[in-house]
Amino acid sequence: MVVHLFTIKSVGVSQALSGSIKEPIGLFQLISRSENPFANEIMALKLMQTLISKASEFKQPEKVEKDEIEVIDLARTKVKFSEGYSLPPRFSDFGSDLTIEGEVNFHKPLAEIAKHLKSQDPDTAKLQKIALCIRAVLAGTSDATGFGQVVSPKAGYRGLKSTQYKRQLGLYTTPDSLGGDTAEFSSWLTTLLAKLLRWPGIRVNDQGYSWPRVLTLEAVEQLITERLGLFKVNYCQLSGMPSLPERISPSWDKQKSSLTVAMVQSKLPYKDDFAQYGKFLDDPNYRTKHRRHIARVASLVMRHIEAQHIEKPNNGEREQDIDLIVWPELAVHKDDMDILIQLSRKTHAIIFAGLGFIQQDGIKGPNNCAVWIVPRKHNGNQNEIKRYQGKHHMMADEKKASIEPWRPYQFMLELVHPKYQNEKGFVITGAICFDATDIKLSADLSNKSNCLLIPALNRDVNTFDSMVEALHYHIYQPVVLVNTGEF
After folding, report:
1. DSSP string computed for 212-227
2. What whole-number distance in Å separates Cα of residue 454 and Cα of residue 452?
């Protein structure tokens, strides 16, 4: 295993939904599908925009008691998208009309415990109803207080974990809770929903974004318009997929002028291991060996980083910290992600690592993905951001093993410098091995990102190195290639 350290100086094809839907259809009929079109932030924002435009027409239900809180009826509220729905959304969808046929219907009032959602201010009351609707839409459920199925159920009795009352008290709203690691929406949207649904006196973490002091209908509509404009500018038009921007504010020193990257070349799995132990590498004996290897490599990374620390004679501060750790393609089994999380917490570094082939719920697979593990370093929030970056172009061995393309978005991580908080930050993104050879993707990224990370498992080292060296000049930014230690 080899760990390389260096410093960077700061300077999906659209797939129509089965049976193209262009007629008015109930919201619940759409969001209950495995291919929920509104689980993508672009479409969720367009729906939210449309609901705000209809807010003046909201009517109070006739049979709602004084203390009950009504919610939008997802079954009876019908929507129509002029161009038909597509996954992922097409660039042309930004200019297409999303309309609500007839009135926005209400029913299924929340219990009395949700009295905090009862507001005398008409704007606040309407925004709360809209926020509950969007939260349910993102989770793909009719229960506005529920969560997406992000954890596969296991055999055995574990007791009653939650009730509607407990969920309304907490109303935990994050991409992970609603969509899991494959969520196609960012913390910006879930933070907006959390602010609209917060309990009085509770402060919601800003997550590094700027928010108006008062969230009125007009202010939220302006926020959504600006956010959709950002998605439109960053859309990868040649590749036919949206970008998924995520913004964090690391706790850097104001004089910081570089990123330090650790390139980890772990040795397992060998290419032949997939033929011997299966494409998922789930053989119990091999799992023991593989997990032990990942743990040892992570420990070696820690020791290597510690060896780089040299105390400055003036103030005793450490000379160098690691900002980013990159692992090769297919390097880490999904059940060993806890090791990466612990490594990120101990080093406070962002990790981009190739996962072994995985089977995802509701997605044709198996798929080849890499995982981003991003520690939040602002406002005291210690929860990591976890997101998948999918792979679209398969190598010959992957095609033979029936690995399916899956790349619904291009994840873009924006690092905001504390000295320039109102400026655009340093944007890093990733492409898995063969995807990096896609000239359409490289053209899309040339003016959208500042650094490209490539986890690879490639036998033809010389050719791939030459390609990456040329790519550095094609897209005008640093390119970090990390290949497996086997090659």
Report:
1. -SS--HHHHHHHHHHH
2. 7
